[in-house]
Amino acid sequence: MYKKLLTTSVVSLSLLAGASNVLAATAEQVDKSDKNKPKDYVAKTAYGVKPPAAFYGDPPGAGRWIDGEAAPIEALGGCTGDKMEAGTVIKADNFDSVKDLCFEGKRVGDMVTENVEWMIREKNLMINTRHSEYVEMDPLYMQATIDGKADVVYGDSPSWSECGVVNGWKAGMFFDPQDLLKDMDEKGVSSDPHAGCKFIWNLRSPTYGATMDLRHISWVFLDAHKGMERIQRWWARRYYMEGRLDGGPLSEGDGTILQKTVLVAIYPQDIKGIGIFSIRYNDPTSEKPDDVWAYLKSVRRARRLSGRAWMDPIGGTVQLYDDWDIWDAVPTKYKSVKLTGKRWIWAIAHAPLMTVDLSFKNTIKEFPAVDMDTPPHFFPNEQVQWEPREVVVIEGTPPDEHPYSKKIVYMEIDYPRPYLGEAYDKNGKFWKSFIFQNRVDYGDDGYQAPIPVVGHIIDWKAEFSTTWSSNMKANPAGVEEDDVTLKTLIKLAR
């Protein structure tokens, strides 16, 4: 099943869910005018207020800030022994010699999850280390979170889920993570039984501004023994109807629609013109499924698809619709969502600026952030750098008809960006790995967003991986709601 070409209906569903990727910014794009910044904005995070620029030295932006002052690195995690130098590559032949060393006050081995250690020891995963660096969300996003949180109401749960519905949200995060952290001890145990649900609700808040323009998303299909099998390329545009952050109204329409997406295949010829238009509704109960239309080349018509595809296998890929952003579903689709703790992990928060190189089309060099030279061909390239990030660990139990018995996501503690994930089969055995490469990029208006640019989805049973790499522009100039419709799909597909 993993060797076949993607079918019309299924592949389209995979990509509509997550056309959420980035284009490298220029210095001019980064330079925001004061008029775009909310008044009285303070970028408060779990690290405290943003440190002075002078602190980005040795190490650059590492560790916590307390009341705006940098805490001593040695005190951050209690590790005060011999230190590991930044730039050290953690791999199978040196893991035992570096695991007990200190890095930014934490023990190196304590930041390696159990399954990541297995991939290092047994599967050739290499972790090129760098010092951690402060990541700032866009001021519009943070201010929207602060301004709107008093209106957000966490309500009752539907009969099939332990997670409650949420109403009153307008933009930014549903729940201020600083408020969630106040109920949490140092081990990540929270006095709020709904903390896990609230963190996943935050994952549903659009961090990408108001419009997402995906110019290039290249998929590579990788066999553990043979390497690259084939490549596909797609174009997509997503228009958010709610939570819009571009300086205009936060909402368009009557409030019933959350987002609209158009996606079209552009390569190879056998799938070129296959397309999809989708509408995701603003329904906190998850009762109303997405409306999805696929354009079928054989009949030159758009046909409505089933609304239950979110948990189905995605054609020739090794992922589900639900796997796109590691966790795509709203929390009320799951039977239970639990916060199991917080911890530090090695993660990719500053991915390379070049993730799709179209000057090397149809070769492994088209994917410079993926190590396809080294078996099993699945992992980030050795040049990609990993850094310590503090995360919350969220465990979800999907409905009985879902292929997984459990999904785990490791998500940045300050903002909704997953770094790593795991999926388990019906027997409770480890099945799939998710490794996402992230970076901050900028829209035409300077909007800044930490977004995934490469996603490694690995099926260890099948010994197969579906990895995507992408370029994207957030908040492209001149895009209107009428540019993302069913008519748009039909026009582009033909």
Description:
- This protein has about 500 residues and is an alpha+beta fold.
- It has 2 domains: about 10-30 and about 205-494, outer membrane lipoprotein receptor (LolB), chain A; about 55-130, no CATH class.
- Helix content is about 10%, strand content about 30%.
- It has a 15-stranded mixed β-sheet that branches. The protein has a two-stranded antiparallel sheet with strand order 1-2. Strands 4-5 form a two-stranded antiparallel sheet.
- The chain is globular and about 60 Å long.
- The two termini are about 30 Å apart.
- The model is unreliable at about 1-70 (pLDDT under 50).
Brief summary:
With 494 residues, the protein is of the alpha+beta class. 12% of the residues lie in helices and 30% in strands. It is globular, with a radius of gyration of 21 Å.
Count of discrete domains: 2
| Poorly predicted ranges | 1-70
Order of helices and strands: HHEEEHEEHEHEEHHEEEEEEEEEEEEEH
Q: How many β-strand runs?
A: 21
Helix content: 10-25%
Shape estimate: globular
Distance between the termini: 29 Å
Count of runs of 4 or more consecutive helical residues: 8
Q: Which CATH class of the largest domain?
A: Mainly Beta
Q: Gyration radius, to the nearest Å?
A: 21 Å
